[in-house]
Amino acid sequence: MLESQLPDFQELAVRLAGYAARLFAEFGIGGRAATVAGVGASLEDFVGNVLSEYLEGKLAHEAARGDLFSLLATALRNDIIDALRKAAHVHEKARASLPRERRSDGPPSLDELPDRSDEIAALLDEDRYRKRVQAAFRDEPQLGEVVRVILDLDLLKPREIAETLGISTEEYHNRKKRLRRRLVEYSLVTGSGKSEPSE
Amino acid sequence: MNRANKNALHEANKQLLRLSDGLFGEASELDSVEAEGLLRKTGIEPDVLTDALYRRFELQAKTYWRKGKPLPSLLKKALEDLRPPTAPPRNERELAREARMVVRRLIERLTRLPDLLLTKPTPPITVAYRNKKEISDRDKTLLDRVSDDLRKRIEDRDKRT
After folding, report:
1. Are A13 and B3 in contact (CB < 8 Å)?
2. Residue A138 class from Cβ within 10 Å (0-12 exposed, 13-18 middle, 19+ buried)?
3. Among A22, A74, B17, B54, which has the highest number of CB atoms less than 10 A from its own CB?
4. How far apart are CA B111 and CA B107, in angstroms?
5. What is the widest separation between alpha-carbon atoms in chain A?
6. Crossing angle (nearest 10°) for helices A169-185 and A9-26
7. CB A99 within 8 A of CB B39
8. Which of A6-20, A151-165, B36-50, B140-154 has the lowest mean pLDDT?
9. pLDDT value of residue A198
């Protein structure tokens, strides 16, 4: 590869980290100091791992299959989702080894380590995801109607969404930007007091 | 688990990821300016993050140096790009690169100078000396006079322009 064809890693790292911040908020992991429970990987770890794999040639980029950033972002997202799955499993396994009642000198009992495996797994459940998003943007009219059109009418093409909302495509893209900004201001699961609606 | 298996596993989440892209946009829609904003809102300073990545890749590079192997070109470029501006230059090429960056930043600031002068922000005057116990009342009165004089001059200057 010619030197002029090499990517700008400063830009690549910042964009990937920004994308990871969005995913962390989207899947309820949290912010700066947060790690995926049970796996212990932070936002910086995920970005570093994906870039490392690319730098060492373990993750190859073929121009015909799309741009480099999209390839790395997909790998990053897969890693985060994978870590969430693993976290649910690790948590379940840790609980399985616990006794029902605590002995004076023994490990904590099942009651002392609450079961969060379903809760962690639910972060990847589509129905629960829909409800979390709806709840989060319920009180914001402009953003809420974008969410409603996408989730209820299953429209995904920008032009279709913009037409249904009676706005320009440019305005729709602006709203999507605002959605991303609001998303990282509170995690979809843990933040801002906007809780998931009760079922 | 290798990349191919991981990707196959995520077929299961295809619909969820489709919704995620539909709602918050595809990854490629995120430019570096917006990414920096999202990081800051999360409480992460982009420079701090890239410095940490630089240290990580430097460790990675050391394993090549120890074995006397050449660095992969991508790793070499990543170290060049992510190198913190505070790190001392290691050779003439880096020195020249940093000098170019300093000059570029200086020129950028100079080109913004006329706009900054036009807005003429009023400098804040703090009277921190008022809490100092070691200053006598007479000295405080003198300092008060100086600060009043300074405020008046700034007001006069603002009126003239």
Report:
1. no
2. middle
3. A22
4. 6
5. 67
6. 70
7. no
8. B140-154
9. 43
Output the six-digit token pair for A87.
Answer: 């976290």
Q: Give me the interface pTM, i.e. the ipTM.
A: 0.78
Is A82 in contact with B20 (Cβ distance < 8 A)?
no
Cβ atoms A47, A76 nearer than 8 A: yes
| Candidate from A43, A56, A124 with C-beta closest to B13 | A124
How far B65 CA lies from chain A's nearest CA (Å)? 14
Divide the 161 residues of chain B into consecutive groups of 10 and give the mean pLDDT of each group: 58 80 91 93 91 94 92 92 79 74 75 66 67 77 84 78 62
pLDDT of B150: 83
Residues of chain A neighbouring B2 (CB-CB closer than 8 A):
none
What token pair was written down for A49? 């791992």
CA distances to A83, A160, B5, B21 from B1, in Å: 12, 39, 6, 25
How many other CB atoms sit within 10 Å of the CB of residue B4? 8
Predicted confidence band of residue A193 (pLDDT cuts 50, 70, 90): very low
Q: Quick check: A22 and B38 CB within 8 A?
A: yes
pTM: predicted TM-score of the whole model, two decimal places = 0.70
Confidence bin at A22 (pLDDT 50/70/90): very high
Which residues are CB-neighbours of B35 under 8 A, at least 6 positions away? A14, A15, A16, A17, A18, A19, A21, B46
How far A73 CA sits from the closest chain B CA (Å)?
6
Residue A57 falls in which region: left (phi positive, over 0), alpha (psi -120 to 50) or beta? left
Residue A100, Cβ neighbours under 10 Å: how many? 7
Q: Per the CB < 8 Å rule, is A32 touching B43?
A: yes
- pLDDT averaged over chain A? 80
Query: What percent of the residues of chain A are helix, what percent strand, and what percent coil, each to the nearest 5?
Result: 60, 0, 35
| Residue of A2, A8, A14 best to disrupt the B interface, most CBs of B under 10 A | A14
Lowest mean pLDDT among A24-33, A46-55, B77-86, B145-154: A24-33
Are the C-beta atoms of B10 and B20 separated by less than 8 Å? no
Would you state the structure tokens that stand for residue A144, as one six-digit string?
A: 């809420």
